[in-house]
Specification:
By secondary structure, the chain is of the alpha/beta class. The strands form eleven sheets. Strands 25-26-24-23-28-31-32 form a seven-stranded mixed beta sheet, sandwiched between helices. Strands 10-15-18-1-19 form a five-stranded parallel beta sheet. Helix 1 packs parallel to helix 2, helix 22 runs parallel beside helix 23 and helix 23 packs across helix 26. The longest helix has 58 residues. The chain is elongated, with a radius of gyration of 48 Å. The two termini are 53 Å apart. The relative contact order is 0.10. About 3% of the residues have low confidence.
Length: 807
């Protein structure tokens, strides 16, 4: 079991031969038009865009940097270019319910035309109507009506006056009204003279006056209807004049919009409102107030006061081509749903339909709206507002204050806009699964998931396509072309980014950043093309900018502040390997793991867990190794030990099971009292059968221990034990590979605990023979013997306890 050989240098990293690329630089390659490595996602996007059913909106899931937004935008723009232009939408005033503006759908470009035509109509009316009412023809006809009314009234009074005079009575006009008085020879009789008349004459006079007063009262009662009739005739005249002026102007608009019934209906209401409110157009004094449909309006010749007749062009698609594709980067509730703005006037907030503003859903109606799922969920009420609009198939504009009943002021209730669009949410996979689980509406509204992969196979065809992708990126970013060696090195680093020698990373943001920085260094070195050295310099510079903390940790290990042995041997002590992630940079470093054993009740105490510094996965790994020890060595006897495991000099949470094999090695060493080589470090998880399982961060862990050993001087005995399942993930630095080729450092692939403990101690682990016994002196035999002795001691203590109870 001690003849395990280190891995050959060729197995420690992916090396891509530049000779397989049949080009000198990427400038010779054609652009890659297809989406590389995302066949499943692109098929889902095509399906989601193509199907025209309710609820078939898309959720594009994948890690940031995989090109989700770019790919989605490309597909949407290609599809949108083949579709019809979305219509225009306008809000117009409702002359019946002013607080509920109407929305009109118009062909693209016609919204702007209607707005301009209505503005021109008002300007024409403001010029035409006053001129018509000031014309000689109108004045003559009105004067005729007024004279006719006056003559009718005077004729009635004249007849009454003549009748009165026939009886010697005259009709007088006094400050208090009309009155009758007796006359003599055409002169009014004074009161003194009247009193001197005979009683019969006075009685006859009073009787005549009484009859005349009745007739006068009847005439006065008829005057008001005559006046009303006259005013009606004047109003009819005004309406006739207005009808002549307005009808001629509106007739042209009817011809223009004869194929749009909604606009024709609106024009009819406009015409009626103009005819009913002629005074609005006749009075041109700036600032004078007019009561119109319950609202006091300011009037001006420029149409400022007549904004009820204007058009609020909400969505103008007159200059667009194809369906709209909108990406809203700040999806707040108003930015999505729209808003109603207010103006401050005389200490109060006022609004009207011209202050209705469109949201992203309005702009994307008839096309596609792209949103970042996390940003939508982080904005108050934006997610609920989006779902409500999609469920209803219509867009109701309201403020948050109205939606939450926080304000009770009178506001507008615009007519909702019918919705017909696709919403594409872009987010991480975890967010998609959480929404699917916790939001019952999510599955109904977003039926299509486009899952972006983070990697692709690293085969011959994949390498050639990736090279074309790099050429496309270089041209798009206007960078220097890459030669074959630069392409090969970029592909190697892409595999490193994927943490798999058989895969290439599809995190194109990181690759693009690498190319940009390599272009900078190539220019700095006066190169005309980007070479392998430029790529490597960009990568090394990026690491250098981020590795300040790594440098400090390694310095403390070198100074002895953090205790790490890289030589000699120790019982119950092993070097485990950990990884620290710092944003996009991660590094590995060794950690001392120790184990102590004593007589006990069969428990393995994880000190990290006991002090709440161990995560659940780490605790699970300790329990698994406890199961392994009990199952192998104490299947037929009590496990009478008590063991304690800990990570020395750790002051934060320990998580993950990648150290469970190292903890088990330390425990076996303590039980067998067999020292472990401190020149070796260990990583890998273990199962209850003693098999070593794959872990993450294998490259960083190996390089971390290598750096510590190199600081202290490589001896040729140092190395790292890794799971055999991780060999395909090896993509080590060049200096590590060179040290391994010179046999100054070693990487061992381990499949079982037995193989690992044999390598660490130099003593075979031992296998059971036919009688179930381990070879004498083997690790397993020493552990089994120690546990058997502990069990016997425990039984003896138990017997002594029973004897004392009997006494």
């Amino acid at each position: 079991m001690t003849d395990i050989q280190p891995l050959a240098p060729a197995r420690l990293a992916l090396r891509i031969d530049p000779a397989q690329f049949h080009f000198t630089t990427t400038a010779e390659l054609d652009d890659l038009t297809d989406v590389l490595g995302q066949a499943r996602a692109t098929e889902a996007i095509r399906f989601g865009i193509g199907i025209r059913r309710a609820g078939y909106n898309l959720f594009v899931l994948g890690s940031p940097g995989t090109g989700r937004h770019t790919v989605v935008r490309r597909f949407l723009e290609q599809q949108a270019a083949t579709e019809a232009v979305a219509p225009d939408w306008v809000y117009v005033h409702s002359f019946v319910q002013p607080h509920r503006p109407h929305i009109l759908q118009l062909p693209a470009g016609w919204g702007r035309r209607l707005r301009d035509d209505m503005q021109q109509l008002i300007e024409d009316l403001l010029a035409t109507i006053p001129a018509v009412f000031e014309s000689e023809q109108y004045r003559a006809r009105r004067h005729e009506l007024e004279e006719e009314l006056k003559a009718r009234r005077e004729h009635a009074f004249e007849e009454l006056r003549a009748e009165a005079e026939n009886h010697g009575i005259t009709l007088l006009r006094t400050p208090s009204g009309m009155a009758f008085a007796p006359t003599r020879n055409g002169e009014v009789i004074s009161p003194e003279e009247y009193e001197k008349l005979p009683e019969a004459d006075k009685k006859r006079t009073e009787e005549v006056i009484a009859v005349l007063e009745e007739k006068l009262e009847r005439i006065i009662q008829q005057i008001q209807p005559w006046r009303r009739e006259g005013l009606q005739r004047i109003h009819a005249l005004d309406r006739e004049v207005m009808q002549s002026a307005v009808g001629q102007l509106l007739e042209e608009l009817h011809k223009t919009y004869h194929e749009l019934p909604a606009v024709l209906s609106y024009l009819e209401t406009v015409q009626q409102a103009i005819l009913d409110n002629a005074d609005m157009f006749r009075n041109e004094e700036e600032g004078e107030g007019v009561n119109f449909l319950g609202m006091t309006l300011r009037k001006g010749k420029d149409g400022e006061a007549l904004q009820q007749f204007s058009v609020n062009l909400l969505i103008d698609n007159g200059d667009t081509h194809g369906a709209p594709v909108i990406a809203e980067d700040n999806p707040t509730f108003p930015a999505l749903i729209g808003r109603i703005e207010h103006l401050a006037q005389m200490g109060t907030l006022v609004t009207d339909f011209t202050l209705i503003k469109a949201g992203a859903l309005h702009h994307a109606n008839g096309g596609y709206l792209v949103l970042d799922a996390m940003k939508v969920l982080m904005q108050p009420f934006a997610w609920e507002g989006l779902k409500r609009a999609l469920r209803a198939g219509a867009l109701h504009i309201e403020s948050l204050g109205q939606a939450l009943s926080l304000v009770s002021t009178v506001s507008l209730e615009p007519e909702p806009m019918p919705l017909d669009l696709k919403v594409i949410l872009v987010g991480e996979p975890l967010l998609y699964y959480l929404l699917s689980h916790y939001d019952p509406d999510f599955a109904e509204l977003f039926k299509v998931a486009a899952d972006f992969s983070e990697e692709m196979p690293c085969d011959a065809n994949g390498l050639q396509l990736y090279a074309r992708l790099l050429a496309t990126m270089v041209k798009r970013e206007q960078l220097l072309p890459l030669d074959r060696t630069a392409v090969a090195r970029t592909l190697e680093l892409s595999a490193r980014l994927a943490e798999d020698a058989e895969k290439l990373s599809l995190h194109m943001r990181d690759i693009t950043d690498l190319l940009r920085e390599a272009d900078y260094w190539a220019h700095d070195a006066k190169h005309t093309i980007i070479t392998r050295e430029d790529i490597q310099r960009a990568y090394d510079a990026k690491v250098y900018r981020a590795d300040h903390l790594r440098e400090r940790v390694y310095a403390e290990i070198e100074r002895g502040t953090i205790l790490i042995d890289t030589q000699n041997t120790k019982v119950g002590q092993v070097n485990g390997l950990s990884v620290i992630g710092l944003g996009q940079f991660a590094f590995g470093y060794p950690t001392r793991i120790t184990a102590s054993v004593q007589l006990g009740g069969g428990e393995v105490i994880d000190i990290q867990r006991e002090v709440e510094l161990g995560g659940p996965i780490h605790s699970k790994g300790v329990m698994i190794l406890e199961g392994f020890v009990g199952g192998r060595y104490a299947a037929e006897q009590p496990l009478a030990m008590s063991a304690r495991l800990t990570f020395e000099q750790t002051y934060g949470e320990v998580e993950g099971d990648s150290a469970s094999s190292a903890e088990l090695y330390a425990l076996l060493s303590a039980l067998a009292t067999m020292p472990i080589k401190q020149s070796l470090a260990v990583t890998g998880s273990v199962n209850q059968h003693g098999e070593i399982q794959a872990i993450g961060g294998v490259n960083e862990k190996i390089e971390g221990f290598f750096d510590i050993c190199r600081q202290r001087g490589l001896t040729g005995e140092q190395g790292v034990l890794i799971p055999a399942a991780n060999v395909k993930h090896l993509l080590l630095r060049e200096d590590v590979i060179q040290a391994c080729a010179a046999k100054q450092f070693h990487v061992y692939a381990i499949e079982t605990i037995d193989a690992g403990i044999a390598l660490l101690t130099g003593v075979p682990a031992g296998e059971r023979d036919a009688s179930g016994e381990y070879p004498q002196g083997s690790i397993n035999q020493l552990v089994a013997a120690r546990l058997a002795a502990m069990a016997q001691t425990a039984r003896e203590f138990a017997q002594v306890g029973k004897d004392k109870e009997l006494i």
